[in-house]
UniProtKB/TrEMBL annotation:
One of its GO terms (molecular function) is GTPase activity. Residues 311-346 are annotated as: Disordered. Residues 8-82 form the U-box domain. Residues 311-323 have a biased composition (Polar residues). PROSITE patterns: RAB (PS51419), U_BOX (PS51698). GO terms for biological process: protein ubiquitination. SMART domains: RAB, RAS, Ubox. It comes from Adineta steineri. This is U-box domain-containing protein. It holds the Pfam family U-box. Coiled coil: none annotated.
Amino acid sequence: MTNQQISPPPRDFLCPITREIMQNPVLLIEDGRSYELYALQRWLRDHNSSPMTNKPLRDRRFVHNYNLKSAIEEYNAQLETLSLANRFLSFNIRSGRIPSEWNNKPTLKIRLSLLGGSNVGKTTLARYLQYGVQSSFVHLNTSATVGPDLVFFYLDQLFENKYVMIIQLSDIPGMERYESCCDNHFRNCHGALLLSDSTEIDSLERTELYWYKQLQIKGKEYVEAILVCNKIDLFEANCDAKYRRIFFQRAEHFASTHNMPIYHISALRGDNIQSMFKQLILRILQNNALLQHIKETNLVHEQTLNNKDSVRRTSSIQLSAQPSASSIQNDDDDDRTSSGDCCKFA
Ligand SMILES: Nc1nc2c(ncn2[C@@H]2O[C@H](COP(=O)(O)OP(=O)(O)OP(=O)(O)O)[C@@H](O)[C@H]2O)c(=O)[nH]1
Ligand SMILES: [Mg+2]
């Protein structure tokens, strides 16, 4: 999603007297020009001429110009949508507590999965996203992940000016013996970061032949994915020019064949991580089919919650049309294996 330019308003939308976009355009019958109602009335109090031509007026009558009014209203609506979209582009990804003033806002949850073989750096990346480079957690040696871990983030701006956006990131085990427990994470994710270790060309091959294939077979048809080549710090320091050239070529080929962006990152140093994560979220929000699906499943989920509630409680029930921000916990049946943190409200 690039920052979209807002084109200047057509000249006909501007009142010749005020030079501003009109709200109530009226057509002065004699000169055939449209003016803002209040400005023309004021003009006609003091003058007996056309504001445009300055020629004397024999007929001072004017009528509402409804066609022009609705064209201006449409233009204003487009302007509002564009400016909302452009404002949203500057979001930041945060972990921790969601501002309490968003408690009753509807939420949309985006599910992302970290996919890739063992040792490619999935857990290190999840830790970096959660704690940042300063944290000793990032530099702590990780042991192999044995069950899916969930990490939650939120975007610091409301999407479409109303939705709290929650990002659920699944860090799943890369070891082959745990593959069977990952099916849900292929099936349910809206976006995937396909990781490989840049210093191990075999890991790139496995990412393509196993992880990407599984995502294609089991995942949603319109899932968004990014190819992530990790450990760029080691790649730059230790790999010779020939290896680097071959690796780049294969990675480019893989990414372009499947129409994916490619990022070279260091999960340990933090290189390119924020921009990669943001890019994936933007691609998802730009994907109309996916966005529609996310909105619908959140709506269904909230209705299910409300139905369960109504059985449990006979007292007053609060129904909301969308899931509210206060209902984001590990609420998906599929995610019950999680031991991850949750976003909490301040
Ligand atoms: N130098 C360097 N080391 C990294 C980087 N990312 C991860 N590592 C190291 O690679 C090793 C494996 O990282 P993990 O994050 O545990 O790998 P994983 O993909 O989660 O592995 P599984 O849990 O077995 O699937 C750890 O020793 C990390 O410190 C990186 O960008 N640069
Ligand atoms: Mg791990």
